[in-house]
């Protein structure tokens, strides 16, 4: 299903939202490339080599390929990061979303490099990640795994218009998308 068909898609409360890949990985790799000299003064060479090697874990499938694999609604995560993509997904669905922040897959390397520049990794470019909305999360996760694609259930479609992220007992609402965090340093 193409994104332009989102309004024709019948979104229902309880449908699961699966995230593929690692959020912020693409943006972290960009920071690593552009700020290598500065980062070499702050981190051990082994850490930077490991961070660069994480690029091998980036999903190289297209949106169309993910749709073909899963036979589900797929929404790309890109500029503005996961928070922007979730906001746009909820808008396209005409429904709210309820998410668990602790389930968002993020690498320690991304967190540490973002901390150096005071970047929010949840608003950092995440090309190669996709949001998938489905009633059949186990089947979709299995199909993704068969293709070597990491997929994690991070939440579900809600029966209201609230865009909520829970972090333990804390609740926050997703704001309108902000500019990508990369704009702060590049």
UniProtKB/TrEMBL annotation:
One of its GO terms (biological process) is protein maturation. Residues 12-162 form the PurM-like C-terminal domain. It holds the Pfam family AIRS_C. SUPFAM superfamilies: PurM C-terminal domain-like (SSF56042). InterPro entries: HypE, PurM-like_C_dom, PurM-like_C_sf. This is PurM-like C-terminal domain-containing protein. It comes from Merdimonas faecis.
């Amino acid at each position: 299903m193409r994104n332009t068909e989102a309004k024709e898609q019948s979104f229902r409360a309880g449908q699961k939202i699966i995230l593929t890949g690692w959020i912020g990985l693409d943006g972290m790799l960009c920071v690593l490339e552009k700020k290598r000299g500065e980062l070499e003064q702050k981190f051990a060479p082994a850490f930077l080599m490991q961070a660069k090697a994480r690029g091998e874990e980036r999903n190289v499938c297209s949106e169309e390929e993910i749709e073909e694999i899963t036979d589900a609604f797929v929404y790309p995560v890109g500029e503005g990061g996961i928070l922007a993509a979730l906001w746009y997904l909820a808008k396209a669905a005409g429904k709210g979303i309820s998410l668990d922040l602790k389930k968002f897959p993020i690498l320690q390397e991304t967190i540490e490099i973002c901390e150096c520049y005071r970047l929010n990794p949840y608003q950092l470019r995440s090309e190669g990640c996709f949001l998938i909305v489905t009633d059949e999360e186990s089947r979709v996760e299995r199909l993704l795994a068969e293709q070597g694609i990491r997929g994690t259930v991070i939440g579900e479609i809600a029966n209201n218009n609230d865009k909520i992220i829970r972090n333990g007992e804390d609740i926050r609402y997703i704001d309108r998308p902000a500019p990508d965090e990369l704009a702060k340093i590049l």
